[in-house]
Design goal:
This protein has 179 residues and is of the alpha/beta class. It is 44% helix and 23% strand. Helix 1 links the parallel strand 1 and strand 2.
């Protein structure tokens, strides 16, 4: 049985939901999993884990600075342990080139090149935004040619089956003998 740590950075909550879902998948496969909100838990990687899946959302074209700080501080451990990056962005829904570019920029900023990377769509949470942010997000969405302009509802782009398969592939890699 493996024990996996899932530290995450989430601004509006979708990445937190994805991290919790990853933990549920891990537990369903008979392993232990703990999530940690890096805004609250600090930038220290706790000991005693067999693997780490770092989850971070993208805003304004960048992953959160505090997630990058966590990765830089713990890079040695992340390179020693089986580890993965989960990148969550609106770009992952329809603009894969930009979503992949965010990951490349994060890898360049932190020096960490995770063996496993999952890129997943986030959510457009109009009902959670204040008036100004709602209008700004609607304009950005319209400019990208998306029909998702009804600000009275939310749009979730996360492909949960993809998150499940990514997590299962990560777990399978833990069980595989080192090459």
């Amino acid at each position: 049985m493996a024990k996996i740590y899932i530290p995450y950075g989430s601004v509006e909550g979708q990445t937190a939901q994805i991290a919790e879902y990853i933990a549920e998948v891990i537990r369903a496969h008979g392993h232990e999993a703990d999530t940690g909100d890096l805004k609250r838990s600090g930038d220290t990687l706790p000991g005693g884990y067999d693997g780490v899946i770092v989850a971070a959302s993208v805003h304004m074209g960048k992953h959160e600075g505090f997630v990058a700080d966590f990765v830089r501080k713990n890079r040695g451990e992340l390179e020693r342990l089986p580890s993965a990056l989960v990148s969550v962005s609106l770009a992952a829904h329809g603009d894969e080139e930009s979503a992949e570019g965010y990951v490349a920029k994060f890898e360049e900023e932190t020096g960490w090149r995770p063996a496993h990377v999952g890129i997943f769509g986030g959510a457009l949470l109009y009902t959670h935004y204040n008036f100004i942010k709602r209008q700004l997000m609607k304009k950005i969405t319209r400019d990208k040619g998306s029909p998702d302009l009804d600000t009275s509802r939310d749009y979730v782009y996360t492909e949960w089956d993809g998150v499940k398969h990514f997590t299962e592939d990560f777990l399978a890699g833990l069980a595989a003998p080192a090459g």
